[in-house]
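Here comes just one.
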Amino acid sequence: MGEILTVKGMTLVISPAEGVTVSAGQPFEVLVDLPGELGTAAVAKGKVASVSDGIVLGKVESKDARVNLSTTMRVRFLPAAEQGEAAIAEEVDRHVTKKEVSREELTSFRDVFERYRKAVFVVKDAEDKSHGTAFAISKEHRLLVTNAHVADIADRVVLNETRTVYKVVQRWYHPDTIRTMNLDGQTVICSTDPSLGKVDVKGTDLAILELERLGPDLPAEVTLAWPDEVRQIVGSRVGTMGYPGYDTQAAPDQFAQATFAEGSVGRFERLNGHATDQPLEQRRLVQYSVPNYPGVSGSPVFLANGRVVVVANAVRELEQGGKVAYGIRVDALWDMLNQLKLSDKVPGAPASLPEPVFVPGQNPKALDLLKAAEELTKAEELKKDKQFRTSLEHVDKAEALAPTYWRTHYVRGLIFSDYIRETNLPRKEQAEMYEASLNAFVKAEEMHFQSFDVHPVPLLLEIARQGINSGRQSGNKDHLQRAINLLGDQNVARVALEGPNAAYFLALRASIQRDLGDYSSALNDINEAINRNPNNQSYKLERDRIVRALQQ
């Protein structure tokens, strides 16, 4: 350790403690004392520039931007990168001793709970609406393990049995993280990008979190089982520590308290994305009997010897009743750590690791869907510039790439609609274009429902609007009837009236009610539309038409 005598910008004058030997080039950390009994936190790192007459000149290379260096802080000197043979031997001995301790076998789950209860954290989102679980694998480097679907919402973590909060500063995802794409709700893609879609929890649902350097030192870290050990765990008793929703509230002032439960490993299954004929020993989705609940995702699953063999991640409800819990074997975690070059930061890591088992390749349909989305973006940009023909060419390309993507038909319907508005078409051609636009929106709605099992209100409103236009131009009463049926549907009306399209929905319904001679209902709807959007002149013109019709 050392005392800071003077601070000059990023240069420190340091007095080492008695008996401490320091050499040029040796790294150091600057420590700050935290309130109460929270310990210390490293806020800066640097290297020794020179040593003269027992005084050390240190150059700070990086520091927390929120902290100003001062003489109230202390310096901890770290082992030099290049040391003499004796120092190297001593350092090797220290690591060997540490490794032997980390592989110590505990004898009961009571021992496991006592040893590792301070290694488990609540993971919280930025708005305190949801939570999961994570556990520390490196105190020194502040690394936690959790699920990919938990990492998607991770903003900060709370240490078990405390209110101590740490900010999450980095996330790493397993390269085989599978997501169901938001674009169509069906196509899966291997991606570490949360914006593409939700994580498939029957894929390799793993992630690593790094915590900020501020805050007290992490008090504990778990010991991960080695890959050869986890292949033999079927039938073994296991225990978990996590934060089930029934015991945990995602609240700002929450006092964290993990729940411990026991069960046994039942079988190995194949992770999604891997070959159906994958050998049993390579199957890394683990079924076990410990109950899983919302909130325990990311919990460590221990053997009685204290080693973590599985990361809890999902529960499946069975049609015949009951639930089955699942987790990911930690050899998949070792693959990830090795690929990210993080395995050397984990105490007790094996000297060598077996060949990794990764998903053989990307889903070509996912790549085509991404290309289709790009084509539709180009189409919409061209539509704004009134380049309708070229815009439709890009829509055709998108449909060829992804024939079941609902948005291709939606964009085509918008292009037809804008073309009608921007050109002076003869009545017959205008009716044909309205019909084409209506058919495109109907197709888009059908495909959307097949993908998401939801009838989207904005699309239904487009169908109603174009049904009205097409019915008026062609005299097709079926289109008008379909429109009034849509607008009269209670579920559609309820959602529409609560959303941003409420005024438009009311005006649209008023318009068709006028066409069908229901002037009283039309007047009620248009008055409410104007009440919600008093600056829309087209609504006022529609009210004038309805009033004139009432007076006739």
User: Anything to note?
Assistant: The first helix runs from residue 85 to 102. Confidence is low (pLDDT under 50) at residues 81-102.
